[in-house]
Amino acid sequence: MSTPNTQASEERAIRVMVVDDHPMWRDAVARDLTESGFDVVATAGDGPGAVRRAHAAVPDVLVLDLNLPGMPGVQVCKELVGSQPGLRVLVLSASGEHADVLEAVKSGATGYLLKSASTQELTDAVRATAAGDPVFTPGLAGLVLGEYRRLASDPAPAAPDQPKVPQLTDRETEVLRLVAKGLSYKQIAERLVISHRTVQNHVQNTLGKLQLHNRVELVRYAIEAGLDDA
């Protein structure tokens, strides 16, 4: 006998919220995602509305434009990632400017896709983002990794009474080393022969121990510690 409730739970559609100030574009993206099997739980056309509705709808993935009235997209990203730890943000923007890409990632975005992407590229990116994997329009991933390394070459000064960094387990250190090398969670899982969920758990535990907030800070820490060269 099948167990519909269990199956439905295991196959729960990814909850997505679409934020864009252009109604026709916003509706088109929401429609494409719905037709691809995602659960579009909310949409918004301005920054403050995006924050309010995201708190109420609790999406898994926020598909976010950067140019929003009322509050910039990067600020929306910062507020929501800081208050909803399980939320992943995929920026979908017309801008391919390096400054915009880096600012979005520093604000907590998991990925950055240009609006010229096809529907298939968008749906693939949303699935990868929901899984915690970084997704970038081709050519932008190298830019982001380069910025990680630049930041690491100019580390912030330590606080006077900075507490001792908690000890990571051997496995957490191993996962952190591979994150610093730019591998996706899926690639790390395959390399270490563990599940994707286990990789995510190790990353979340490491973020908590080190009191860091996102992948950017995590990679910066790893590079400063020399783990990318180990």
From TrEMBL:
Residues that bear 4-aspartylphosphate: 65
Signal peptide, first to last residue: none
Molecular-function GO terms, alphabetical: DNA binding
One BP term from GO: regulation of DNA-templated transcription
Residue intervals of the Response regulatory domain: 15-130
UniProt keyword terms in alphabetical order: DNA-binding, Phosphoprotein, Transcription, Transcription regulation
Keyword Lipoprotein among record annotations: no
Gene3D superfamilies in alphabetical order: 3.40.50.2300
Segments forming domain HTH luxR-type: 161-226
Xref: SMART domains: HTH_LUXR (SM00421), REC (SM00448)
Official protein name in the record: Two component transcriptional regulator, LuxR family
